Structures are given as structure tokens and as C-alpha cells.
């Protein structure tokens, strides 16, 4: 039996190599996809599940060889025949069309990743440790503490839900909506001593690269969980049998239990939640 790669080997993936592995097919017309090796399962994942140290841990005991790459354009890699299994957010902008085009099997929910409500260490709105994101948002509004909108589709959508939850209070004076995204939104929140929302994994990565006067303060509300799925690629030449076997491994009860026990190096709180139970019972492995 082929020895599974070590966890360290997965974490040594360079950003450049990962992006190159996921380049769109149109940029590789002179390089046809090689025939899939039936002994290898090629997994293309969005960065969160790899940077958060989850997928490397979960595939480490899979009885076969796994090649794991991370980048944003996972479905472009799959369309080019360079991935056997895709792991992405359920709401990834390319997931639905990929499946509707007949290039992927039905997405199976495997786990959810964590969004965080972040804020200054002084926490003037006193939201630290709350388990209700709406209550946290209400305190921010009530104290007129600055809240910086992170202008990403899914994050803005969640922000609007929270604003509706607290009775749609006037936004003047505290709700800062200047179309900042990602790192830029965090930089503004840090500068003004305000609050914001972002995925915990990219926030922690940014914090390591660019120290911010912000901390993750609210995590536990289910509203802050974002579902992720595994999609078996049906492009000719891909290793579908291997992909299905790995997908079953990810859905197995023992693996699902491990998901909940995986921690970020800098945070002991539960930040990954198993989601296999959301699939149809008949497809779930019981062993």
C-alpha cells in the first residue's frame, strides 16, 4: 500500500505552486491534462481548508496517495482535468455551474469553516465571548462603536441579516460602508478601533503578515459557519473511483469527529464543524 504523504509535506505547498496548479484551462491550451494516475487522488481546495490545517490532517490517514493543492480557481483546474476532487464553499461562484454542466457529481457537505466578528482588544461594545452574533451587533450599534463593512458578497449578505435582526437601526455615525474588502477592511477597522466580519482563516493569515489591533471576539453563533462541500469531478480521464473513496473517507464518522477536534495553532476554540450529516443518509459511510 502506498504510504500517505506526511502532514508536513502538505503544509510545505508554496503559494506559487498552488496557484500554478490551479491555473485556468485557457492559459494551458498547449499543455493537455495528463492521464490520471489511479493510485493518486488530486484534490483542489480553496485556501481556507488547507491554510487552516484541516485537510492536511484529514487526508493524512487516507489509505492512498493524495496530492493537495490550494487556490481560488478550483473549478477551473477541475474543468481542465487537473483535479479529481474539489473542496470549496457551497456558495463558491463556480460550483453550481460546474455541476449543472455535468462536470461534477452532487456536492456533498463535509464541514463548515468559521467566520469571525473581530474587534479591538479594548472591546468598547463588550461583545467578547458572546454566542449570539445578533446581540453582539446590537451592542456595537447601541454604543455607536465603528463597524467596518467587509464588502465581499457573502460577508455583506450576513451583515445585512444582522442589521435586520436588530431592528434596522439608523446607520449614521457607526456603520462605515466604503466598499473596503478583505485586508483593506481589516486595516480600516484596526485604524479606527472598530469591528468587522471576515473568515477566521484569512484573518489569522493577515494578522501574521500585517499586525492589526484586532482580535476574533465572537465565533460561536451558527450564523458564522460557512458550509463547504466535496465534489467528485466527472471530466474524462479523472480518477473518479479514487475521488469517491476519498470523499467517503471525509464523510466517515471517525473523520467527521476529527474535524471538530482540529484547532488553529493560535486558538483552542472549536472553529471547524462536521457537516456530513446534512447529506442523504444512504450516501454516508458507516464504517
Question: Can you describe this structure in just a few lines?
Answer:
The chain is an alpha/beta fold.
Describe the structure.
The protein has two domains: 117 residues, D-Maltodextrin-Binding Protein, domain 2 (3-Layer(aba) Sandwich), CATH 3.40.190; 110 residues, D-Maltodextrin-Binding Protein, domain 2 (3-Layer(aba) Sandwich), CATH 3.40.190.10. The protein has 287 residues and is an alpha/beta fold. The strands form two sheets. Strands 1, 2, 3, 4, 7, 8, 9 and 10 form an eight-stranded mixed β-sheet that branches. The N terminus is likely disordered. Helices cover 35% and strands 18% of the residues. It is built from twelve helices and ten strands. Strand 5, helix 8 and strand 6 form a beta-alpha-beta unit.
Keywords:
287 residues; alpha/beta; D-Maltodextrin-Binding Protein, domain 2; 2 domains; eight-stranded mixed beta sheet; two-stranded parallel sheet; 10 strands; elongated; disordered N terminus
Q: Termini distance?
A: 20 Å
User: Which sequence of SSEs, written as H and E, runs from N to C?
Assistant: HHEHHEHEHEHEHEHEHEEHHE
Q: What is the number of helical segments per DSSP (H or I, 4+ residues)? A: 12
Number of separate strands: 10
CATH domain class name of the largest domain: Alpha Beta
Shape: elongated
Q: Estimate percent helicity.
A: 25-40%
Largest sheet: 8 strands, mixed
Total of domains: 2
Share of β-strand residues: 15-25%
Radius of gyration: 20 Å
Low-confidence stretches: 1-31
Structural class: alpha/beta
Could you tell me the mean pLDDT? Answer: 85
CATH topology of the largest domain: D-Maltodextrin-Binding Protein, domain 2
Query: In the CATH hierarchy, what is the architecture of the largest domain at level 2?
Result: 3-Layer(aba) Sandwich
